[in-house]
Amino acid sequence: MKTVLHKAATRGHQDHGWLKANHTFSFANYYDPERVHFGALRVLNDDHVEGGMGFGMHPHANMEIITIPLSGELHHKDSMGNFGAIQKGEIQVMSAGTGVQHSEFNGREDEAVKLLQIWVIPNKMGVQPRYDQIKIADSAKPNDFQQIVSPNPDGEGSWIHQDAWFNLANFDKGTAKEYELKKEGNGVYVFMISGKAKVGEGELSERDGLGLSETDRFTVEALENAEILLMEVPMNLPRM
After folding, report:
1. What keywords sit in the KW lines (predicted)?
2. Is 75 labelled as part of a ligand binding site?
3. Homologous superfamily in CATH for domain 2-234
């Protein structure tokens, strides 16, 4: 098994006043040649947006974008005509494809919104842009892995243009479960949203990340109550 550990305090950090952003991988003004991506996982941003503030309309193309609110209310608007709000217990998935513009704003004046924004490099370029917003709270699986993203439009959760599977885990202290990878050659990036857990042979605390590759399974054990995001992605990317 090959691993790469990213402690929370080693992430890139930008403080714009209204936006406090932590970048696991190189993004915007933060660049580290050793931390550009983990396989197809290109961006993992941990954002804190103050009340009433947000990102104005801006373009994306040929990227799968997954947004997971952690607290507060995030408002979305895009050039495809979609408009709505998402909160914790929901996720938003957008295939940028041939090109789309969108904005994201904190929908509340009196409370910050905290979110994870994740970019995955797709396995198809130039696809028709699409937007999906689903509620995942109703199908949550305490002390088990809950699939929230896959390559299968008919599968559990939402889907993207990549052989990637995302799972959320809400484990009580002492819970241990084995994760078996879905596809040979994939790796898994584990991000600790909260709590503390042992993943393989490593210990992770809040906001730590651990990439695991060259393995087909590993065990996750909660050392205290923990919320964990597992992102399984291809490690070898074909030339486009």
Report:
1. Dioxygenase, Iron, Metal-binding, Oxidoreductase
2. no
3. Jelly Rolls (2.60.120.10)
